[in-house]
Structure formats: structure tokens, C-alpha cells
Amino acid sequence: MVVTDDGCQLWTTRSGTGNPLVLCHGGPGFWDTFAGLAGLLGDTATVHRWDQRGCGRSEWRGPYTVARSLADLEGVRRHHGLAGMALLGHSWGAELALRYALAHHGRVTRLVYVSGTGIDPEATWRPDFQRSFLERLGGRLPRWRALRAREPRSAAEERELATLQLSADFADRDRALEEAERETTPFLGADPECGRALNADRRRFPSDALLGACQALQVPVLLVDGADDLRPRWAVDSLERALPDVRRVVLPGAGHLPWVEAPAAFRSAVTGFLARGS
């Protein structure tokens, strides 16, 4: 367990061999489901995983803010004794990893930004995402809506809701529910306030400030997208243009979790990038 500077206990584990790679899971308000990803990369990196506060196996207590999340990630680095590290963040975790690199660029050797949503205001892309999400749920939409409207929900209903929601993130519709169920087994849950509070705090940051900081970032960055991610990939274009040292890989046939649906191509892109210049 990591014990942060404010006394919060965070679950962490490490596996594999090689240079350190710290993974930042998505959400906010979900937990680390990166066992498969760690296995995919573990012969080329020592992979460090952790649950963010309020999520899964970590302690469920706030405050839930961007600043606190960055301090927690710094606590993970210190706990593992890492002088430098590569970061791989997925979705919200991609934003967290990017913000950490901007604040602590001397400690980050490489940044892998997976399925993020860029630095433009959320209002520019979220309506398109919401429409696509409802369309992709298809016949599962009525049940999803019924569960969303139900308060309070049982633990079984919380898991079902999370599974239905995640099913929209897979491009292969025949396997989507099966893959989503794998992600929510075991169902570890999260503090309901975690996602709400962090999302509200994230939206306070002006995009133009992020743009300027990204233009000055001297860390190599790999952007990895699934071609069939529901979140519009054009939302990441301005981030790509802003970064001085960036390459981008778009994986056909993959959705929001590209290492699940295109593992060989994902592994090739990430291991090649991490080995660059080492």
C-alpha cells in the first residue's frame, strides 16, 4: 500500500522486468483493470499499477481534485523509489498522466496517452459522444436508462449498470458485453462522489492554459487511439498539434480499450515507443 502525504492508503502492485512504467487507469471513479495490459507489456517494462483514491482497493475518501490526484501519483512514484518513469494513462488517466508530465516533466521519460479526449473544451466533443453512446447501446439502452434512474441501486445493479455502460466502448458488438463483463469481474466499485467531484474540478481548468503548457512540454509522447472509439478522435487533434515531440497511432477495429481489441498492434506501438532512445 502507498500511504499518501495526507494519510490515504492506495493499493499498488508491480510486475514484469525492465524500465519502470506506471499505469493510470480511467474513470474518474473506476479502478485499475490493467492485469491483461501489464501482462502484455511485462517482458519489456516493470509495470506499476495502482487504484486512484476513492476507487477499488484504495481508500474511499476525498478530497477528489485534480491537484490531489497529481499528488497521489507523485506518492506512487516515491513509494516505488522511481527517479524517473514512463507513464501510460487511459481515458481520464491519460489526462492525469499528461498533467503530471506538465507539472513534473523532469521525472517522466515517456508518455503514452491512450484514448484521451484532448485539451479542447469538453463542450466541443461531448454532444457527439453522447449521441454515439446511445446509438451503440442499441437494444441495451432501455435497461441502462432504467438502472440509471434507480436510486439507490444494489451492488448487483451497480455492476450491471457499469457493465452495460462499458459495453459501448468496444467496437466488436458481438463480443462487447462479454468483454465488458470481464472488465467488471471482480466488481470493486468506487465512491459515487469520486467521479462527480473530479469531473467538476477538471472542468475548472481553461483549455488555453493547457495548450500553452503542452507546447512547451519536452517529453516524447505517443498518442494511441482506437479508430472506433466513441469519443471523437478529432478532439485529440489540437493536442497532437501542440506537442513538440509526438507520434500518433490509430488502431483499426478497436474502440476505447485498444489493448483488448488490438493487442498485437497495441503492444508493437507501445513497446517500440518505450524502447526509442533507451
Your description of this structure?
The chain is of the alpha/beta class and 278 residues long. It has one domain: Alpha/Beta hydrolase fold, catalytic domain (Rossmann fold). It has 12 helices and 9 strands. The chain has helices at 35-41, 66-79, 92-103, 126-137, 141-149, 155-167, 176-183, 192-202, 207-215, 237-242, 258-261, 263-275; strands spanning 2-3, 9-10, 12-15, 19-24, 45-50, 85-90, 108-114, 221-226, 246-251. Strands 3-5-4-6-7-8-9 form a 7-stranded mixed sheet. Strands 1-2 form a two-stranded antiparallel ribbon. The protein is globular. The chain starts with a strand and ends with a helix.
Apparent shape: globular
How many E strands?
Answer: 9
> Helix proportion of residues, in percent?
40-55%
Number of domains: 1
- Secondary-structure element string: EEEEHEHEHEHHHHHHEHEHH
- Write out the strand line-up for the largest beta sheet, numbering strands in chain order: 3-5-4-6-7-8-9
Residue ranges: pLDDT <50 for 5 or more in a row?
none
- Report the radius of gyration as a whole number of Å: 18 Å
Strand content: 15-25%
Please identify the top-level CATH class: Alpha Beta
**Helix-and-strand structural type:** alpha/beta
Largest sheet, strands/sense/barrel: 7 strands, mixed
Give keywords.
16% strand, Rossmann fold, 9 strands, single chain, globular, 278 residues, seven-stranded mixed β-sheet, alpha/beta, 12 helices, two-stranded antiparallel sheet
